[in-house]
Amino acid sequence: MMGSQGAEPELQSFLLDDKSKMKEVPPQTKRKSSKNQEKSEVVHLNGDDYYDPFIERNLEHPTTNGETLTHLLKASLGTGILAMPQAFQCSGLITGIFATVFVSFVCTFCSYSLVKCAHTLYRRTRVTAMGYADVAEVAFANGPAWSRRFSALTRQSVLWLLFVTYFGTCSVYTVIIASNFEQLFAHHMGYALNLRYFIAMLLLPLILLSYVPNLKYLAPVSMVANLLMSVGLGITFYYTLNGIPSISERPAVGSLETFPTFFCLTVFAMEAIGVVMPLENNMKTPKKFLGVFGVLNVGMGGVTVVYILLGFLGFLKYGDETKPSITLNLPTEDTAAQVAKICISLAVFCTYGLQFFVCLEIAWTKIQENFEKATIYHNYVLRTVLVTLSVAIAVAVPTIGPFIGLIGAFCFSLLGIIVPVVIEFATYWDRVTVWMTIRNALLISVGILALVFGTSNSVTDIITAYVPVPELPINATVTRTAAQ
Question: Mapped to the 3 state alphabet, what secondary structure does 83-146 carry?
Answer without folding.
Answer: HHHHHHHHHCHHHHHHHHHHHHHHHHHHHHHHHHHHHHHHHHHCCCCCCHHHHHHHHHHCCCHH
